[in-house]
């Protein structure tokens, strides 16, 4: 039996990871450390995963909590972060605190507690944008949003703990994830829930920007593979190879929900909007991992999940959405 400390297990990818792990490794002891920010949901962290993870409400920046939880831990899977690019454009301070200082607090405590493996969940956004071809783990880091820069800082901090302290950190850099329990501020759940509410979908700019989509469960399997076979100090890209433009994505979601193109509302583009992300994931594939979910099927299942779980998203949508957040920020400034 292994003892795993998971941070951010009440968020989108973390809860999918816990649910997967519970099925695949029922005897492992999991602890989920999560602050339950606007993006964390008690339901996501515990429902169905109740017996899989002991829940601790706490901040990854709080050293005493983190030090206490590290004792006896075999491996850390570090998901907790501020994750929405648009929010980081408006107010980036909490991104630096959580993503950089929080990661540092965890690394320091884990090193002192002799944790055997520390997996840092980084992102493809650390590479910046690429017009053609794909990024390998050797590509240079050119983050373009404050969110991506904070993740790049934490990613490089992880590298330094391996090089300097020989602390066994492994970094994964995944592409855009989709699936159940994603907060309805990110494009797929925002578009689905808007359409379920009879609203239009806000498409940034021309809608030509491209993303590579991977199901959160395939991401969970990738982390499992890295935990088992990954080499300390190494970085692994995690992508499906399936890319499409935001306009194509909107078209697929509209079709699944029986709506026409008139439900697309072109809106002002995101400042510094990365045009395209694409990963070369052959290093991870060489460890024996391959994505299993077909995108069309996974997207249809995701639409059905949001249709059947209105009680989950209706509680959080509107209360903490980006629009409410902007309104609050600007209300403060104009006075
Ligand atoms: P999310 O925003 O859905 O969830 C983040 C979780 O972290 C929430 O439960 C939140 O309560 C928790 N959290 C935030 N600050 C905390 C703090 N200070 N202490 C403890 N917990 C805190 O995020 P997600 O989409 O599930 O992403 C998880 C990780 O994967 C992040 O590190 C993100 O950068 C990375 N990632 C995400 C994607 C994606 O497409 N969503 C792709 C690649 C990598
Ligand atoms: O690539 C991995 C990253 O994917 C993660 O590191 C981030 O945490 C995650 O949020 C995601 O970042 P993106 O910026 O790619 O995701 P988002 O869902 O915000 O936007 C996806 C694309 O859709 C992007 O090109 C912007 C566009 N978009 C987004 C929103 C919210 C729209 O056109 N309209 C919208 O309303």
Explain the overall architecture:
It is a single chain. Strand 5, helix 6 (146-165) and strand 6 form a beta-alpha-beta unit. The protein has helices at residues 12-24, 42-46, 63-70, 85-90, 93-112, 146-165, 187-196, 216-229, 246-256, 282-285, 295-308, 310-316, 322-334, and strands at residues 3-7, 29-34, 53-57, 75-78, 117-123, 169-174, 176-178, 201-204, 210-215, 235-238, 243-245, 264-267. The longest helix has 20 residues, at 93-112. It has 335 residues and is α/β, with parallel strands linked by helices. The strands form 3 sheets. It has a 7-stranded parallel sheet, with helices on both faces. The chain has a 3-stranded mixed sheet with strand order 7-9-11. The chain is globular, with a radius of gyration of 19 Å. The protein contains 13 helices and 12 strands. It has a domain at 3-178 and 216-241 and 277-293 and 320-331: Rossmann fold (3-Layer(aba) Sandwich). Helices cover 43% and strands 17% of the residues. It binds nicotinamide-adenine-dinucleotide and 2'deoxy-thymidine-5'-diphospho-alpha-D-glucose.
């Amino acid at each position: 039996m292994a003892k795993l400390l998971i941070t951010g297990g009440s968020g989108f990818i973390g809860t999918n990871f816990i649910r997967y792990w519970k099925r695949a490794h029922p005897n492992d002891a999991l602890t989920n450390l999560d602050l339950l920010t606007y993006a964390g949901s008690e339901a996501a962290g515990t429902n169905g995963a109740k017996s899989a993870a002991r829940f601790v409400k706490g901040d990854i920046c709080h050293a005493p909590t983190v030090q206490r939880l590290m004792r006896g831990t075999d491996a850390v899977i570090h998901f907790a972060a501020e994750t929405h690019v648009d929010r980081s454009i408006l107010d980036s301070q909490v991104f630096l605190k959580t993503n950089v200082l929080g990661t540092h607090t965890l690394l320091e405590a884990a090193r002192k507690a002799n944790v055997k493996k520390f997996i840092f969940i980084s992102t493809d956004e650390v590479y910046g944008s690429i017009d053609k071809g794909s990024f390998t783990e050797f590509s240079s880091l050119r983050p373009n949003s404050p969110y991506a820069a904070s993740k790049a800082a934490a990613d490089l901090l992880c590298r330094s703990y391996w090089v300097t302290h020989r602390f066994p950190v492994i970094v994964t850099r995944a592409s855009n994830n989709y699936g159940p329990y994603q907060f309805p501020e990110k494009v797929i759940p925002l578009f689905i829930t808007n359409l379920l509410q009879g609203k239009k979908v806000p498409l940034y700019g021309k809608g030509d920007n491209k993303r590579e989509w991977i199901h959160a469960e395939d991401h969970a399997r990738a982390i499992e593979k890295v935990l088992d076979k990954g080499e300390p100090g190494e970085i692994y890209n995690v992508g499906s190879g399936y890319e499409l433009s935001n306009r194509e994505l909107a078209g697929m979601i509209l079709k699944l929900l029986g709506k026409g193109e008139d439900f697309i509302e072109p809106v002002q583009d995101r400042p510094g909007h990365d045009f395209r992300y694409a990963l070369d994931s052959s290093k991870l594939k060489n460890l024996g991992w391959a994505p299993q979910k077909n995108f069309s099927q996974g997207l249809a299942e995701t639409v059905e999940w949001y249709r059947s779980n209105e009680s989950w998203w209706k509680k959080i949508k509107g209360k903490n959405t980006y629009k409410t957040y902007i309104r609050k920020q600007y209300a403060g400034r104009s006075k």
